[in-house]
Amino acid sequence: MTAIQITNVEKRYKSLQALGGVSLTIEEGEFFGLLGPNGAGKTTLISIIAGLIRPDAGKVTIHGHDVTGDFRAARKKLGVVPQELVFDPFFTVRETLRLQSGYFGLPNNDAWIDEVMHNLDLTNKADTNMRALSGGMKRRVLVAQALVHKPPVIVLDEPTAGVDVELRQTLWQFITRLNREGHTVVLTTHYLEEAQAMCKRVAMLKLGKVVALDSMAALIRRISGSQLVLNLREGELPADLRHLVSHPELSDEGRKYSLRINDYAEVEPILARLRESGAQLDEMQLQQADLEDIFLQIMDKGSV
Ligand SMILES: Nc1ncnc2c1ncn2[C@@H]1O[C@H](COP(=O)(O)OP(=O)(O)O)[C@@H](O)[C@H]1O
Ligand SMILES: [Mg+2]
Fold it and tell me: Where is the ABC transporter domain (predicted)?
């Protein structure tokens, strides 16, 4: 069963094209990452999925329900943790969660509300007013609020932005458990390490367009092999090795270079060539390629 079907979605804010024809199919049970720099259109896409804003063209369905034509049915299948913290400050945590349950037509939902609060370490704040909570605690309530109706599809928009390490761990444990139990999870984050650890498949957005879509493993394989990071004490990288440089922006006053290699056997000839040219090595490191490398390449060049 398809959890979220996004077909040719376009959205414009006056002259700015925020989404330029996005199509994505996310299957039930996936842990999917939606990545991209600030302004790429992630929040706009999530707002359209949540039925909060209308696309200019295209359509989105959640478990087959159109988010504009069949809003109530689609909304029941979906829990969204928005990027912005917005609350009624006069309610307590428990009241906030009960209200949200009522909105979904679930008046006797306290057992699940208690379980969600427990899993997000919110139990001892149950009777605290929202306005008295720290930013991190508010973020927890926002997550709890998205989960009150046990939605099969959970979408989180930068849930760990500006959040302490402890909450990140609590949150990921809970979300991982929900995903194991069959919930579909879609996550946007700019912590790429987090995405790499959590997401099985990712789409990268750039200026409102999908520029990469693949399994995490395949994306990481695509930027073949490893990086050889060289720090030179003297001399510089010989011209015939410059085509191997992968991140020119990391070159530190012409002393530090990151070279792309496919095989460890390439290391020896590179070192020999350096010696020959009179360059002196200060430090050398071999690094496995990670999502950050791929992200930089895609955002620089538009492809890998
Ligand atoms: N309500 C709005 N009015 C005008 N422009 C907007 C509005 N919301 C977002 N944008 C613009 O649309 C683009 C995409 O924004 P957004 O979806 O928030 O990106 P992301 O979440 O990836 O950072 C940005 O250039 C942003 O400035
Ligand atoms: Mg955003």
Answer: 4-232
Structure tokens at 43: 């929040």
Q: Which of 9, 10, 13 is the pocket-test mutation for ligand 1 (most atoms within 8 Å of CB)?
A: 13
Rounded CA-CA distance 48/21 in Å is 13
pLDDT in tens, 69-88: 999 999 999 999 999 888 88
Calculate mean pLDDT across residues 14-41.
96
- What separation in Å is there between the alpha carbon of 122 and the centre of ligand 2? 25
Kindly report, residue by residue over 49-67, the tens digit of the pLDDT.
Answer: 999 999 999 999 999 999 9
Chain region(s) in the chain for CATH 3.30.70: 226-288
Q: Which CATH number fits domain 226-288: 1.10.1760, 2.40.160, 3.30.1330, 3.30.70?
A: 3.30.70
Pocket of ligand 1 (CB under 6 A): 13, 16, 18, 36, 38-44
pTM above 0.85, yes or no: no
Q: Of all atoms in ligand 1, which is nearest to the CA of residue 157? A: 21
CATH topology of domain 2-220: Rossmann fold (3.40.50)
DSSP assignment of 169-187 equals HHHHHHHHHHHHTT-EEEE
Q: Which of 168-172, 268-272, 289-293 comes out lowest in average pLDDT?
A: 289-293
